[in-house]
Input
Amino acid sequence: MNIQDTELDGVKLITLKSFEDFRGSYIELYDSKKYKSFDLNFVQDDLSHSFKYVLRGLHGDFETYKLVTVLKGNAYCLIADNRKNSPTYKKWQSFNLSCKNLNQLLLPPGVGNSMLAMSDEVLYYYKQTTHFVDGQQFTIKWNDPDWNFWWPISNPILSLRDFRGNYE
Output
């Protein structure tokens, strides 16, 4: 496992190792001993299944760390720092996460998380340090001109929440 800092304060890019042979491959997604340096207690795992050009997010809250992984397919993942006291506030960065490149993102509280499915199907898996509470998340509108995000497509498939956005 290789851990790198990213351009956003506190965000880590983790590259996993796999074992491959004639049968296929084996990947260890999480081992509490290997992640103990982060001193995090994950309490909930979530999985979203999306079809090509579905954009989910940008969502986040100010309490939860998330460890995100793509289990199937290829996703353009865009994250945005929504922490007003952060040195990287209002900055964003994108990553390609796929079942082939073995990358994970560790996102601190206050960093909005999104994923755009770039393959026919994407399984997007994330571990969280808090339980989900409806109404406690912020949503940054995917095309908010104040953020100047870049997306590889101009007309994604969106939920009503993501289409409208909010900053609660």
About this structure: The helical segments are 160-164. The mean pLDDT is 94. The chain has one helix and 13 strands.
